[in-house]
Amino acid sequence: MALKIWNIVKANSRIEELEAQLAAKETELAALAGNPSELEAAAQTQLAELTQARADLTTAKQTIGTLETAAKAHAAQVAKLTSDLAAAEAKLATVPAQVETAAAAKSVQIAASQGIPPLEIKPVASPGAATKSQAKGKTAIERLREEQQARNPLNLTQ
Known about the structure:
Blueprint: H1 2-34, H2 36-93, H3 95-113, H4 132-135, H5 140-151
C-alpha cells in the first residue's frame, strides 16, 4: 500500500512540473502571438543567417577539397625529392673513388710523358707484418737505399 501512495505522490509532483512548463510555454506563445511582426522579423533574420551559414559551409568544403588535393601533390613532390636526394647521395658517395682513379691515371700519364718509368708497387702481405729488412732492425731510409741500389747497382742517375 505504501508503494501505491509513493507512486501517486511522484505522479502528482510530475503533473505539477508539467503544468508549470505548460504555463511558461503558453505565456511565451501569448507574447509571440501578440507581436506577429516581431516574430516574422526574427524568423527572416534566422532564415538569412541559415542561408549564409550554408553558403559558408559550401565554400569551406570546396576550400578543404582544394587544400587536400594540394597536400597530396606536395606529398608526391616530397617523395620524389626524397628519392632524388637518395640517388644524389649515392652518386656523391662514389666521387672520391672516381677522383682517386682519375688522379692516379693522370699522374701515370704525366710521368710517362716525361719519360719516367712506372713505379713498382709491391703489395704488403698484411698491415703490421714485418719484411726481411724490417726484421733486421733497419730504418725506412735504409730500406729505400737498399731497394734503390738493387735497381741501380752502379749508382747511375738518370
